[in-house]
Structure formats: structure tokens, C-alpha cells
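Look over both lines:
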Amino acid sequence: MLKYNDLINFVLAHEFFLELLETHHKRLFEVLKLPLVCRITKLLIDQRAKKLFFWKELLKSYNQKRPYYVELSFGYDYVAIDIKETNNLYKKCTERFKTMGNITAEAIVNLCIWNPNLRVLSLKGTEIHGSISDIAPHCGNLEKLRIMINPRSSAAQFALFAKLPNLKTFIITGIQQSGSSLLFFNDLRKWCRPKSLQPLTLAIEYCKCDKRQSTAIEIFDALRCFRMYKLYEHLGYNFARCEYDLHKIPEAKNLVQESPETFPLYDGVQMEFERYEGELVLNIDKDSGLSQMGCFSKLPNLSHLVIKNTPTYVKERNSLAKLFQLMVPKGTFALKSCIIQLTIDRLESIELAKVESIRFLECHLSEWESIKYLCKLTNLQHVLINVCEPINSNTSELVFNLLSACRIKAEIACKDFKLKMKGRTVYISMKRRCNVDPFSSFAQPMNISTLSVPTNTYTLNQLFEAFATSNVNSIEELFYESSENIRFEDISKLTEIQTIRKLTCPALILTGIEKLAELNNLEDLYITGKGNLAALFTKLAEKNKIKSIRLDKQLVPEEVLRVSEIKSLKKLHCSFFNTQDLQSLSALAKSSIEELIVDPSDSLQNLFAAFSSNSTTRLQHLKINYKNLTITEMSEISKITNLKKLSARFFNAECTQMLVRLANLEHLVIKNVLGYEISPLEHLLWDSVHKSPITLRKLDLKVWIGFNECNSLTQLETLESLSCKLNKEPGIEILANINKLKELIIYKAEGSLIELFRAFALKSESTLQELQTPIICSDEIREISHIESLLKLIIYNKRENKFICLNPSNGHNSLTIDSNIFLPIFQSCQKLDCVTVDFEFGVAMAFNFVSEVNTILKSIRDPLLQKPLKLALRGKSTLHSKLHLEDIDEAFLTVFCYTYKSDLYTTAGLLFDYSESDSDDSDVSDQDEYENLINNFNLLSG
């Protein structure tokens, strides 16, 4: 603007110059047009300018040709003009200048007429002479309006603004200073906004400059949120902003009576309240007057409380005990979630324990003794606690008591350890020199089925011995994880836990490992480390109990010979050091192994030849990781006549064509095919269709497929399960014509799958029972809700800002959706057993979502005929306030919320990871990730 300031002044000096510029310098005129419109608007506001009629007509003509996005702000002694291109809001021009006196309503009406595309109008700092409502008929495109009320004003005069079709936010200041608060809120009933228009937010702003001045906000059903904050810390002013949903304001009766419900705003407490989430966040200062805040029960829908840590908080002046006394349930008020980022002492814990309605608790405790009071919270479901003092044998029993009191999940940490417990699964992480004695004492009464110990400590034998000698020991799965090599003798006491069936021991120095054979019930073993396992395999063969072995090491021929002697072994996962030793490979082919998973090795031709040449081999499942099979290797595999499942990568399309030779193949996983130009699968699928008999029941394709492949798949008469990535091609909905398809897993898809889901929904006798798919638009959800045959559904979106939702109430597109858009699925798909909703972006989890699902299920399901539906909520949007804390009927519904995070242990310096699973920003890419997702769900569902 400054660059062209002199030129603009020259052009506007006379209409002849303006006409000359527009006619003979068109490119320059286009550059200057936006600054010209901005300057002309300034001239019209400044009534001292000459030739006003000319400027009015000129501005009107410009706006008729190309309307601009106009913002006008009238302050106490200034006016700010902000004008932007409607198709490029980053291209803008701004003018700011001082004014002389106030402005008339007539002048504003004229500005609206001359700028029909006025979007933002702020009249906060100026007094309006005349009726402000006169401007309403002339600002139909207005989106945001800010007005300062005066003592002579009433809410009724603003009623016309409520009918503006595009108005989204109406901000009013000065209500408290005018002394007309009660009258204003009573007059709101005259504001009638048509239901066909988009929602309008009424925002009331307060400024508290004097500590002696009392400030309170009015409470009624339309309240959406409020916030009290300090905009300028050095001034000490407190600001408050309250927002109301205008469409929720009743029309037929007064909003408030003579004594309206109010919520006082106190100095020393900055706060935020969100009705939608039912959450109140407090930042407590050094002088807060907590004892006076006995008004929490007035806040509508309040169920979550967050008390944040502030550097100015002084406990001696602000004991939280007084605050907790005010949180005791009464009437319809019942606090369900409480997060305290401050350290609370014993007295505060005693008062907190009286808030019996709490189901989710996160806090810091100054001492272990406080836990015994928190155990009295009979409704506790989730607890996350950090204790500031070290644990000892005298206080360890308190840990067990709290774990027992928590019905779903408990997590406890101090500087020495972290402990998680969910159901019968326990996770213990200890520092290197942590004292194990306390764990020994509480291990005795704990009925644990799964124990995970990710730690570097060398004192685990004491812990394992405690579990081994427990009278109620029931550990069936033990996971020991370490980032460095550990001697087996340092964990050898685990062999005394005779109930172990599944054992994971990574990073071991394998000397003495044969003692693991002393575990009489061991069936599943996973080992990594350095050393020879021949002695272990010999002893396991004598026990003849082990069924599955996974090894992250290369087996030498001696080890291959010994592992082949284990008659009970059905599954082996390993790699081979020497595939030229035919004797050991032949012994493996003669073994009882039915499933073989091979990690990267040299040429595997001899291995496959050993199995193909053995007519009595029991091998049925073969998986090759991270290696592209060559033609010679594939030639040998094609001779293994009993093979039912094959998972591999292939060097070229010619290798895939050999798959039709496998007469009994039922499950095929194609991870990748190198060297193909167009489609490596077209010939394979064509040959499979014409193969007699067709045996393929499950097909997992990691490569992209389009219409041609989909068309061939429809002719596979035995196909029951399909996993794939779908190209954006017309006609892929033909997949719905696969007659016996029960399971469809879509890892990724280019574009929308509306037509595909519609085809399944319209199929008269659909057999589809399980669907896993990415979702990018609300129309896809609508079509899925019509597939009534579904038993299991997994839908997800991991792509940021890629969700398109059409809001049915006002027809506006939105990138963020309300989780209630999923409700029709539960209403229509009445056969569902379990549903997983996994959205990392774009979904606002409604606080009543689970309750709504529960209500729907109770109206359509018979618990005597159907098991409770399992609902899993996954993703970054599933935060503490979204946890299921509502009352539900477990005969109809069970809910699992995971991948929720908290600041608690990060604040404590412990970096506690709450995620149950990790994921990137892409969609689910393969079957392994999908199976992990399912396993996580099963773990949560117990």
C-alpha cells in the first residue's frame, strides 16, 4: 500500500485520472484496484471528503463487478479497514486512521449498501447514534458482528441480527457495565433464528479491571462455553468470554427468572469450561479463594475437572481440600473425571476420596500413604498416579489395594518404577537398581495371567521367585524385554514359574538356556540372542510339549537337526545359516512342522527342494519374509503338494503364474512382484479362474488392483476373504459380485468407495460379514450403514485434513465431523458383534456418543440372543475426556478406549507412553498391521 500511496492519491485527485488509469494502464489498474477500493472506503467514512456522490457510485460499481471480502472495525478513536480478494484471502489491503467523534446508524447503513459483501463489522469502541437495528436489512453477507451495548440498550433491538442468514458469531460487550444484565437475558427470548439457517454463536465478553468488582456469568441451557483469562499479565486485568448457542434459547418463555443462576468469576483462578465435553479447566494462582467456589454444580453437563500446574500456585494459601469438598456429588451433579497436575497431600486425598462418582483419576501424590484413601473410590475405572516418594515393603500393599480397586486400568509410577495393570495383564518397568522387595510382597496375592517386564535390571530373579512361590500364581504369558544382552542366569528363576505357557526372552546370552525346558507347560517360545540352542532343543524334544518356536537368529545345521526332533513342534520361525547342508534340511522336511516362517537367508532352493521331495511332509503353511522368490525357488515350492497357505514376494510375474500348480492352496499372500510393467496379477487371476478345481478361499494382495483384476476375482467361486489396495477406477464395485465373499479388507484406496459400499448394500443376499476400510467422506459411512449382513466393522482415517463431511443441517462442507455420524451404522447393522472406529484426524468425539450407541442397542437387540457389542475407539482424538465414563448396560455394549495420552508422567519426567499401538500417518498397509490391530482389540476386550 505504501509503495503506491502517492500514485493512489494522485489517481483519486480527479475522476479523469482514474478513468485514464483504467483505460490505458489496465495491468497497473488491476494491481491498484484493491488499494483503491480500500482508500475509497476510507474517504466515504471520513465525511469531510469531497465528491462523496462520485465515490459512492464508483465503489458500488466496483463491488458489482467483483465483490470483495470487507472487514470494518470502529474503535474509540480510530477506524480499521481490511479488504481482501474473495478468491484469495491472503491478498489484502489495510487502512487505519483516526476519527473525530462517534458514528451514526445511517452512516453504517450506507457503508453496508456500498459494500454488500461486508463480512466482519466491529462497533466495540464507538457509540452509535440512532437505531443499530437499521443496518440489519443491508448486511446479508455479514458473518461476524461485534457491538458494545450501552445503558439505554436492550437485547430486543438486536433481534433482527439473529435472522441474518450468514451470521456465525455475534459478540456483545459492556453488558455488565451497563447494569442491564438481567433485562438483557430476559429479552433474548425475542431472538428467533430460523432453524433452516446455520447455527449462530452469541458471545458475551467481560473485562474486570477492579478486584472489588464482582463478575458472574449467567447459566442456562444455551451456554456452550466460557473462558476467564489475563490478556495483559502486567496490567492485571481479567477478561471473560461466554458463548451461547442461540438456537437453544427457548422462544415461549423467559430464559431466566428474577433470580438467575450465575457462576462467579474469581481473581486468581483462570478457567475454561466446555459444555460439549463437560470439562472445566482451572489454573490456580497464588490467591484464588477456592473455598468460595461452591458453584460448580450449576455448570451444565460438568463431568470432567482438570487442575493445571501453575508456577504461581502456593499450597499454603490454596489447599485443594476445600475445592474437593465442593465436588462431592449432589443432585444431578456428579464428577466423573479428575486430572490434577499439582501434587496433593494426605488431607487433600482424604477429601478427594469423598467424590465417590470419580471414574477416571490422574494425579500426583506426595506420599504412598495417601493411596489407601483413594482406594475408597468405589466407581474408579481408570487411575494414573505418580508418587513423589520411593516405595518400600511397608507401603507396597497399598499398591495392590489400588490395583484391585480400579476396575479397568491402573497405572502407577514413581522415580524407581512404572507399573500398569489391565485385567490380568501387568506391565512392570524398573530402573536398573530398583529395590525389588516391594514387588515381592504384592506379587503374592495378584492373580496375573500376563506379565511384561521391559527393564535393564539385573535383579529380576527375586521378582520371578516371588511370583513362582505365590499361592495364587497363574502367569501363563511372560514377556521380558531388554535393550542390551542379559545373561540367562540373571533371569533363570523364571523357570520356577511352572504355569508359563508363552515366553518371550530377547537379547540373551544363551549359555544355560537349556534350563527353559524345565517349564513343563511351555508351548510358545520366542528367543533372541547369541549362542547355540542345540542343547535346549534336545531337552524340549524330551518334554515333547512345545508347539511354537520363534528365533531371531540363524540356525546352524546342528540346531536344525535337533529342532527337527521335537515331535510336538508345529510352528517354526527362523533363518538358516547354511542352506547347503542337505542332511539337516531333509530332517526338517521330515519333522512335524506344519507352519514355517523363514527370515532373509541366501538361496532357499535347497530348503524348498527338501520339502518338495518328501511325499510325507506335513508342511501346510509357508511364509518368506523380506525376500523375492526366484523362478528356481518358486519351481520347488510349486511341488509341495500339501501347501495350503503361501505368503511371499516374487521376483517377476512368471513366478506368480506357477502358483496355479499348488493344487491345495487355500490362502495366498502376495506382498510384492518385481519387474512387472502393467499388471502382474492379470494372468495369475485368469489362470486361477480356469483352474479345476478352484481351492483358493483367502487372497491377500499387497499390490494395487483395478477393474480388470476385480472382474477376474468375481469369477473365483470359492473366494471368501479378500485383502487389497484399490485404484481409483470406474467399475471396481463389481467386487460385490463375488458370491461367497465374507471378509473384505481394504488397506488403501485412491478416492471414494461410495459405489462399492452401495453395491454391497443393494445386494439382496449379501454374505459380507467383516469389513475393514479407510473412510474419507460421510457418504461412505451412510452406504456402509445399509450393509445389514455385517458382523465386524473396522473403519479408520489416518490422513490429516482428508475427511469430507456434508453437514445435513445446513449443507456446508466440513473437515471435522461429529462422531454421532456413525450412529446409523448401529441402528441398521443389527447383526454387528464388534466395531472399531480408528480416526487420528477429523473426528470430534461427542461426549454422549457411547450413551447414544447404548440407547440404540437397547432398542433393537435382545441380550438373550446376542452377545454385547464390542466397541473400540482408537486414535489421537480419543483423549481422557472422550473415555467412556457413562453408565451403559453391559448386557448390550462393552467399550474400549485406547491410544489416549496424558501430560501426567511427562510432567513428572518419566515419559510414560500411554499408546497401546503405534501408527504413522498412512492407512493400514498390510495384513500384519491389520492382525496387530485385531490382537490389540482382543487384548483390550479381555
User: Anything to note?
Assistant: The two ends are 66 Å apart (CA to CA). The domain at 742-942 is CATH 3.80.10 (Leucine-rich repeat, LRR (right-handed beta-alpha superhelix)). The longest strand covers residues 88-98. The first helix runs from residue 5 to 11.
